[in-house]
Amino acid sequence: MKTREIPRTIHYSLLTIHKPLRGFTLVEILIVVAILGILAAVVIPEYRNYTQKAKESAAKESLQLLRSSIERYAVQHNGVPPGYPNGDTSANPHYVYFVVQLTKASNENGRTADVGTAGYPLGPYFKEIPSNPLVNFNPNMVGVMPANMNFPGEAAGTMGWFFKPSTKEVKLNAIGTDTQGKRYYDY
Fold first, then answer.
1. Per the domain annotation, does 143 fall within a domain?
2. Is 84 left (phi over 0), alpha (psi -120 to 50) or beta?
3. With helix as H, strand as E and coil as C, how does the chain read?
4. How far, in Å, CA of 17 to CA of 23, rounded?
5. Which of 9, 49, 129, 146 has its CA 20 to 30 A from that of 122?
6. Is residue 12 situated within a structural domain?
C-alpha cells in the first residue's frame, strides 16, 4: 500500500493549530483602572502642592521687584516715591501716576514722557506692573493709598497690590495663607 503524499502547502496548513484571539478580561481591565486611580490619587495632590508653591514663589519675587523698583525710583527722585502727581507730596497719590511713573521715562521732579525723550533720563523701571499670581481679578492693579489712610486689616483679593507712598510699603493683596501657614498679606 502506497502512502499518498500531501503537498507541502496543504501539509503545513493542516498541522497549524489556530488559537482563538484572546483579549483582556473584564477583571484585568478593572484591575488596571483601579491601579491607575490609586496612582492618580497619590500624584495629583503633590502636583497641586508644587503648583501652589510656584505661585507663592512668583508672588514673593514680584513683591520684591516692586519694592526694589519703588526704592530705586525714590532714590532717583529726591526721596519721593512713585504715585504723587509730578512728585508733589502734598497732593494725594494716585494709581495712574504710580503706573506711569514706573513704566515711562521721568525726570527728577517725577514728570513723565516716552522713553528716549530728551530731559527724561530716568526709568522706566518696568515694562508693566508685575502681576500677583495669587489673585485672579486685576492682578496688576495697585491700590495706592493716601498718607492719612491705613492699610486694610485683611486682604480683599480684588487687585494685586496695596501701596502706601508716604511709607513706601507694599503689600500683597491675596486672601489666604501659604504652604507654611503665613498669611500672603503679611509677606
1. yes
2. beta
3. CCCCCCCHHHHHHHHCCCCCCCCCCHHHHHHHHHHHHHHHHHHHHHHHHHHHHHHHHHHHHHHHHHHHHHHHHHHHCCCCCCCCHHHCCCCCCCHHHHHHHHHCEECCCCCEECCCCCCCCECCCCCCCCCCCCCCCCCCCEEECCCCCCCCCCCCCCCCEEEECCCCEEEECCCCECCCCCEHHHC
4. 19
5. 146
6. no
- Name the phi and psi angles at 121, rounded to 5: -85, -10
Residue 155 is placed in which grid cell?
486682604
Chain-centre distance for alpha carbon 103: 20
pLDDT digits (tens, 9 = 90+) for 145-174: 999 999 999 999 999 999 999 999 999 999
pLDDT band at 142 (very low <50, low <70, confident <90, very high): very high
Q: Does a structural domain hold residue 25?
A: no
**8 A C-beta contact, residue 111 and residue 120:** yes
Q: What is the pTM of this model?
A: 0.75
Helix 26-76 vs helix 95-103: crossing angle, to nearest 10: 90
What residue type is assigned to position 111 of the chain? R
Any idea how long the chain is? 187
